[in-house]
Write a structure and sequence with these properties.
- By secondary structure, the protein is mostly helical.
- It contains five helices and no strands.
- The chain is elongated.
């Protein structure tokens, strides 16, 4: 084999270094986004859900016939919807979230009514709202469902790779 001819297998190494660096950053960003979803779910399950269960759900869940203030905090959709006075959680917006005002003993509400939450719990709930109020198994719209929506039977029926091979007539040419 002639050494002066470029080898097609080593074409990647001829790319400018900047392209390689950019490709590396893209891979890192995609990995970070994938991990961020998992991190938000883990944060909710380990830190937020226990606080909600211990401090809020006695009065603000579907277990009671009529949750106080019409507010339920047992699902993301219910928290986003809010209660009689408005939206309890506005993902990423602390000033607009009535939950943050209430747990901070703000002007409108002071929750829980029997006494303030510990500072660490308030900070955890504030961080959760800042993160966008992630809730495991719930898509951004707030609707509960699998992540991602996966139905193998439907995919087999629709996706091209599962379709039987067919003969097609070649197109007419002039």
């Amino acid at each position: 084999m002639n050494a002066s001819l470029p080898c097609h297998r080593h074409r990647f190494f001829r790319l400018p270094a900047i392209k390689i660096i950019v490709a590396g950053f893209v891979v890192l960003i995609l990995a970070a986004v994938a991990c961020a979803d998992d991190a938000g779910d883990e944060f909710f399950e380990k830190q937020v859900r226990p606080i909600l269960a211990a401090r809020c759900l006695e009065c603000h869940s579907g277990k009671s016939a009529s949750p106080k203030g019409g507010l339920r905090l047992d699902s993301r959709a219910a928290a986003l919807k809010g209660g009689d006075t408005g939206q309890a959680v506005v993902p990423g917006k602390l000033k607009e979230s009535l939950l943050v005002d209430a747990i901070s003993y703000g002007e409108l509400y002071q929750m829980p009514p029997k006494g303030r939450l510990p500072t660490e719990e308030v900070a955890t709930l504030v961080k959760w709202v800042e993160m966008g109020a992630p809730w495991p198994g719930v898509q951004e719209s707030g609707v509960r469902g699998q992540k991602p929506d996966f139905d193998l039977a439907k995919r087999k029926a629709e996706h091209w790779c599962w379709q039987p091979i067919k003969d097609f007539a070649p197109p007419a040419v002039q």
